[in-house]
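Hello,

Following up on my earlier ticket. Below are the four sequence lines again, exactly as submitted.
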Amino acid sequence: MPLTPRQQQVLDCLRQHAADFGRAPTLDGLCRLLGLRSRGSLHKHVQALIAEGLVEPLNGHHRGIHLVTQSTDENTLPLLGKIAAGRPIEALPQSDTIEIPPRLRTSRPCYVLQVTGDSMAEAGILDGDFVVIERRETARNGEIVAALIRGEETTLKRIVQEPGRVTLVPANRGLSPVVYAPEEVAIQGVLVGQMRAYH
Amino acid sequence: MPLTPRQQQVLDCLRQHAADFGRAPTLDGLCRLLGLRSRGSLHKHVQALIAEGLVEPLNGHHRGIHLVTQSTDENTLPLLGKIAAGRPIEALPQSDTIEIPPRLRTSRPCYVLQVTGDSMAEAGILDGDFVVIERRETARNGEIVAALIRGEETTLKRIVQEPGRVTLVPANRGLSPVVYAPEEVAIQGVLVGQMRAYH
DNA sequence: GCGGATCGTTCTCGATTCGTTCTCCTCCAG
DNA sequence: CTGGAGGAGAACGAATCGAGAACGATCCGC
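Thanks for your patience. The regenerated structure is below:
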């Protein structure tokens, strides 16, 4: 739903205030900035902005009108580098980012890797694909994880955790599952999305 | 139904206003811009534009004359429906859209389909994946296309075109390539991107 | 810890603006 | 003369907007 003119003014004023002071204004302070005399009136505008998801809702626990953080780059994630069986994640020197639609990520922190190699080809993950990884240190059995093995190499595999051992299962007839001790495998994240460009 | 000269003038004025201010004008504001004195008169023209589908209908819920946004968000594409071997594209009743990062599409018109079935599984396209299709009627050999066969069924396959015959090649050991006469196969678009969510 | 000041929230009331509908008017082509 | 395009103006209901009062909850100096 589009904002009314006054709501737009309030939003502009909030952005201005954030740029100037970096502090969250109170309703009374906003009233003065906007030339209003009643908090009650302004409150309705702020509620509308909250309904639009532009302002942090404050459920009586703290004060101050906080803008929601940067809705613009909400759809970009850091592209950390490449993941290949046999090598640690090749970090890119420059901090690169890549646009990811919300459907391909979760609400928790995520990052993106580019796949090298065909070890997960039969799971539909090919050489050159981009994979979205949710930053997490535990996984459920059967999930595909980015795992650091003995602090040396990082790989993308399906994980099966049993008492006393962890098995990383590739999706490729030419490769075999490998069994590790639990302390050898550090989960760095869980696969939540994948995408590929053909052109 | 064609627009009357005055309706065209109102439409031009609306586009001008959107370009200048990015805000929806009110009927009174439009009157001033057009040199009119009565909202009631202008209202009839706006109603005509709504009937033509050029202006957002506002059913007393909000104010301001909004132009209909045609592909306003350049990162969203229409999600037309599902594509399955053996059936035409199942059109979704409601016109749905889906966010697609620029990397997964081309600069030409594209749309999105959701894949049903595993006929392209060995090319890394699984059941449930979303594929981005560039709207095009010709393809190069080896490209993956959405093709309409005999006007009946639509399918996603790799295409090989030779003089006098067209072969559609699935990527699945259990399925065989099928040869058609060129006039039996109508290319509806070419695969340019693919994505999958795991959660 | 306490009490007053500050703040968020909710409510009512009134004023203005705006979309809508209606009637009446002019102009012009067929 | 008739009908359609176009405009003026009045009137009504709804959306928008602000003022003010009242009530808890939080914050802060003592």
